[in-house]
Amino acid sequence: MAGGPNHLVRPAGSYASTNGVRRRMQLQRERDTAPEVALRQALHRLGLRYRLDRPIVPGTRRRVDIVFVRARVAVFVDGCFWHGCPRHGVRDHKINGWYWPDKIAGNKARDLDTGRRLRRAGWKVIRIWEHENPSRAAARVARVVQSR
User: Fold this and answer.
1) CATH code at 74?
2) Is residue 44 domain-resident?
3) What is 106-144 written as a DSSP string?
4) Domain range holding 69?
5) b (16+ CB within 10 A) / e for 91-109
6) Is there a domain that residue 112 lies in?
7) What are phi and psi of 40, to 5 degrees?
């Protein structure tokens, strides 16, 4: 984009703006994140038992963070940045602005598709944002699991 902000122009090579950023992105956990572990501990304190990181989405390689098999409840713990939290998701990407909006939109579209597939297969889907209070989120999950 001639004359425009250079953060909207896609550079050649890596998506990361620096080697340090690239390293941090590579170290980003896909599972066992602090919010996920906190929710699991709160669920366990309520006496609930579950399975972790299960591939239950028909027709995909997608995995569910926390699964209550008998009750058919699938729980996802979504990071605010990666899944476009309406409260905390970054809207103005100062670095690599050409990349992040499409990446996050793709994540959100995949989340919607995953939920649709699971609901069609008879599952109840619960999405928890990383900023939610783990005890309150666990209580919400417990109500759903116990009702099924």
Assistant:
1) 3.40.960.10
2) yes
3) HHHHHHHHHHHHHHHTT-EEEEEETTS-HHHHHHHHHHH
4) 30-147
5) eeeeebeebbeeebeebee
6) yes
7) -60, -40
**Beta strand pairing status for 64-68 and 124-129?**
unpaired
| pTM for the predicted model, two decimal places | 0.79
Q: For residue range 79-132, what is the model confidence (pLDDT) as tens digits?
A: 988 888 888 776 666 776 777 888 899 999 999 999 999 999 999 999 999 999
Structure tokens, 98: 């050409």
The tokens for 3 are 């004359």
Burial class (CB in 10 A: 0-12, 13-18, 19+), 59: exposed
Task: Report if residue 96 sits inside a domain.
Answer: yes
Q: Which strands sit side by side in the sheet containing 73-78, from one edge to the other?
A: 51-54, 64-68, 73-78, 124-129
Instruction: State the total domains in the chain.
Output: 1
Tokens 């970054």 -> residue = 90
Six token digits for residue 7 = 């953060």
**Does residue 99 form part of some domain?**
yes
